[in-house]
Amino acid sequence: xxxxxxxxxxxxxxxxxxxxxxxxxxxxxxxxxxxxxxxxxxxxxxxxxxxxxxxxxxxxxxxxxxxxxxxxxxxxxxxxxxxxxxxxxxxxxxxxxxxxxxxxxxxxxxxxxxxxxxxxxxxxxxxxxxxxxxxxxxxxxxxxxxxxxxxxxxxxxxxxxxxxxxxxxxxxxxxxxxxxxxxxxxxxxxxxxxxxxxxxxxxxxxxxxxxxxxxxxxxxxxxxxxxxxxxxxxxxxxxxxxxxxxxxxxxxxxxxxxxxxxxxxxxxxxxxxxxxxxxxxxxxxxxxxxxxxxxxxxxxxxxxxxxxxxxxxxxxxxxxxxxxxxxxxxxxxxxxxxxxxxxxxxxxxxxxxxxxxxxxxxxxxxxxxxxxxxxxxxxxxxxxxxxxxxxxxxxxxxxxxxxxxxxxxxxx
Length: 412
What we know:
Order of helices and strands: HHEHEHEHEEEHEEEEEHEEHEEHHEH
CATH architecture of the largest domain: 3-Layer(aba) Sandwich
Strand content: 15-25%
Number of helices: 11
Largest sheet: 9 strands, mixed
CATH class of the largest domain: Alpha Beta
Helix content: 25-40%
Distance between the termini: 44 Å
Shape: globular
Radius of gyration: 23 Å
Structural class: alpha/beta
CATH topology of the largest domain: Aspartate Aminotransferase, domain 2
Number of domains: 2
CATH superfamily of the largest domain: Type I PLP-dependent aspartate aminotransferase-like (Major domain)
C-alpha cells in the first residue's frame, strides 16, 4: 500500500494551531506584567500540576534533567553514592544521577513492559551488594560505595511495577525518584495501597520533562519535580535558585534551574487539555491493538492489568527494524527509535566497564523496537495506513524466512 499524504510521527503544528487563541493571551500577560521568571504564573502551574499528579508539592524547573538531579540531591543522595536505574532510557536519566555526584548503575528490564524488572533489582541488591549491619545500607562490593537510591523509569508512558520496587526501597532504606518524564498522568494500581496511584506520587519524588513532544509539552524547555515531602520541596526550590532561602541569602550553593513564567503559563493552558489528550492517546493505542490483532511477526506493547498507560509512544518490535523503517519511509510514514543504543553501551560510559551481554533483555529489544506515529490527533485512516504497511512488510519477511527454512528436495 502507498500513501498519497505523509503520516507524521508527531504533529505539534496542528495542536498549537488549535490552542492559539488560548496561548496568545499568556504571552501578552507576560509582556504586560514583565513577570518573566517565577511569580504567580509559575506558582499557579505548580499548584495545578501537583493536584493533577495527586502530590502535595510541585517545583517548576528548567528541564526534566534538572528534575532528576535536584530530586536526588534534595532527597539525600550524596557524591560517591550508587544509584540504580535502567539502561533503556534517554541519557538524561543518568545525567541527572551523575550530575548529582552519584554513580549510575543498571539492572535489566522486563521483557514485556520495558520498565525496570523488580526481580533483577532484588537480585542486584542481594548478589552485588552486602548490607552494613549498623546502618542497614547496601554497599556495592566492587564499587565499594553505598547504594542509596533507585530511579525507575516509566518508559513510553507506562509506569514501572512500583509495589515491589517500593518494598525493596523500604527494606533497604533506599530513596526512590520516579523518572516520569514520559508518563504525565499514567496510573498504577498499588495492591499495597489498594488504589490507583499517579506517576510522580509514589516515590520520594517524581521527575517530569515538558519538552515540546511530551504528552504535556512546553513551547521550549521546561520540567518539574513532584513530592509529598515539604522538606524535599523546600530543598529543590533552593537548588533551582542559586541556593537562596530568600533573595540574596544563600544557605547552600545551588544552580540556575528555574522555570520561566511564559512556559509555566503555556503549561497551565495545556494542562487543562491533558486528560482529554491522554484519553485520545489511549483510544489511538486501542485502535492499533485492534488493527494489529491478526498481525504476524509484530510484537505489540504490553499493558498489565495494574497499568493505565498514557502512550507517550507506541512501540512495536520486529526482527528487521531497519527494513521496516525503510519500507514505511517509502510509504511516507515517519517512525522513530527510542532508543537504539542502551546507555551501558554508549561512549559516554565507556569508562564504567560495561560490556555487551551485561543486560540481555535491554540489548535484545534495543535492536528490534520501532516507534510508530502516536499523537492525539492521529486519525483512524492514518492508523490504517500505518498498520497495513507494517503488516505488508512483516508478511514478506515471514515468507522469506519460511522459504529459507523449507527443506530442499533432491531428485533420484
